[in-house]
Structure formats: structure tokens, C-alpha cells
Amino acid sequence: MCNHYQKHPEAIAAWADYIGWSLPDAFGETLDDVWPKGEGWVARIEDGEKRFEPMRWGFELHVPGKREGTTRKTQVTNIRNLSSPFWRGRVPRIERRCLVPFTRFAEPKIGQGREEHWFTVPSRPAAAFAGIWDMWNGEPVFAFLTCEPNSLVKPLHPKAMPVILAEDDYQLWLTGDWNEAQSLVAPFPAQLMRAE
């Protein structure tokens, strides 16, 4: 599961300009690295208006602990099980969908501690994950969808990869009926990506 990505301001600015979204001045002051609980930026549409704004990455949930009767906190940053009751009411709703721009994302190197594999879409300055946002504990938060890994990611991280959208699919993800938009939950073409 992806729990680390980067968003270089210059690349995201070029991406936003290319798709016709304006970035607020505050965007250039953000950090490149995004970790769970950290601040990421999302592009979304509200009442026909394009918005680009910061949100915290991850839905904080209380889940059962190891000992009976206890709970622990966890951050849900990736959405894999779309039939889960938690996501079933959010993902189909147009007003909850967003784009999460990134320049590269990481997956851990199995058995190598904190070392990571990095993945990019080299044909563009930045790309976007298919995301979901909501108000959670009084603040806006987001997560993004994951799917089966493609042939580039799978040998390095066999569990899953983020859902990366082609620019031509942004509008469908943000405004399309769920019956059509769910077709976008699929691995991005491996030949359009590079591992670093």
C-alpha cells in the first residue's frame, strides 16, 4: 500500500495549468513529501467551482485492539475494498470524489526496513490518483483508491498500487455516474510508468 508520495510544487503547478486549475499562492509553501496524517492537496469540484486545497491524508479510525475490549487508532489512507460499508456510501458520491496530484509515489522494499521503490509517470510533470475526501472529526481528509498492481509494480510490490488516472479521465472521475466511473479503478499502463 502506498503510504508515501511526493508533490513537487513546480511540477504540480505545471499539471494544474495544463488541466486548467488555478493553484492558491499557499501551495508553493508546502513540503514535497506526504506521509499519513500529513498535508496533501486535492483538486475537487464543489457547486460547479474548481477547488484546489490542502487536506490531511487519512481517515483516523478506532479498530479492535489485540486484547479483548481494547481499541487502537489507525490511519486509513488507501481504499481497496469498495464494497466495504465504510466506503460504499462515499465512493459513488460525485461530491466526495477528488484528484490527488503527485510527482512520484513509493512502495516499501520488502524486508529492507525503510527503503523504498519509487514510481513515476515520466511523460508528464505530475499525475493524479483517484481520491475520495470527506469531513472527518471536524476537518477535511482524503484517501485514494488502490487496485491490482500492473506488471511494473507487481514484482516489487505484489499487493496493490494506487489508481492513477489519465488526464482524459479526470472529468469522468469527478463528475461521472458511478456505473461509468468505477471502470477507472484499474491498473495504470505499466509501459507509461518507470521504477526508480
Which stretches are low in confidence, meaning pLDDT under 50 for 5 or more residues running? none
**How far apart, in Å, are the first and last alpha carbons?**
17 Å
> Could you give me the name of the CATH homologous superfamily?
SOS response associated peptidase-like
Largest sheet: 8 strands, mixed
What is the strand content? Answer: 35-45%
Count of beta strands: 15
Please tell me about this protein's structure.
The chain has a single domain, classed as hypothetical protein yedk fold (Alpha-Beta Complex), CATH 3.90.1680. The strands form 3 sheets. Strands 3, 4, 7, 8, 11, 12, 13 and 14 form an 8-stranded mixed sheet that branches. 13% of the residues lie in helices and 39% in strands. With 196 residues, it is mainly beta.
List descriptors:
single chain; 196 residues; mainly beta; hypothetical protein yedk fold; 5-stranded antiparallel sheet; 4 helices; 15 strands; 39% strand
Task: Please summarize what this structure is.
With 196 residues, this protein is mainly beta. It has one domain (5-195): SOS response associated peptidase-like (hypothetical protein yedk fold).
